[in-house]
Write a structure and sequence with these properties.
Layout (H helix, E strand, L loop, with lengths): L2 H11 L4 H12 L5 H6 L4 H4 L7 H14 L12 H20 L4 H5 L11 H18 L9
Length: 148
């Protein structure tokens, strides 16, 4: 079983939500800790809490890409690759997930089961979206195992 899948399952069983799992996996890859960042990612889970916003796997991975390529202090500059990486991820997600479930809103993906569907449906989506985000970073010359 893939190391990321094992970590993802461990985090899910510990009660972390999709967006939190993604950022924690990225922090683990970078050998960093940031509990405040992980905690804040809970705001994206289940479509920002009510199911009516984008899937937390997508928004979590967008935040993950920005963790590597965004501006984080006065002396940093956002990578000119960030908008392209975000567009690539969003397009992929719309094609791979949105087309399958009739949209990218969390409620569209989970259906009537809401957050309870996460155990059934969302694990695959989280894993695949994380893998795609890691691929996008690599294609754009960013080492996902290196802190910037």
């Amino acid at each position: 079983m893939d190391d990321y899948l094992i970590q993802m399952l461990r985090l899910a069983s510990a009660g972390y939500a999709c967006s939190q799992i993604i950022v924690q996996l990225a922090l683990d890859a970078r050998e960093e800790e940031n509990p405040a960042l992980v905690r804040s990612m809970a705001g994206l889970a289940y479509g920002c809490g009510g199911g009516q916003a984008s899937c937390g796997a997508l928004t979590g991975c967008c935040c993950m890409l920005a963790l590597y390529a965004g501006k984080g202090s006065d002396d940093e500059t956002e990578s000119d690759q960030l908008p392209l990486m975000l567009a690539e991820l969003t397009e992929w997600f719309q094609t791979q997930v949105g087309a399958r479930y009739g949209g990218t809103l969390c409620e569209s993906i989970t259906g009537e089961d809401g957050p309870a569907a996460a155990r059934q449906r969302c694990g695959e989506i989280v894993g695949n979206t994380f893998a795609k985000a890691m691929e996008i970073l690599t294609v754009h010359g960013i080492d996902p195992y290196e802190a910037n």
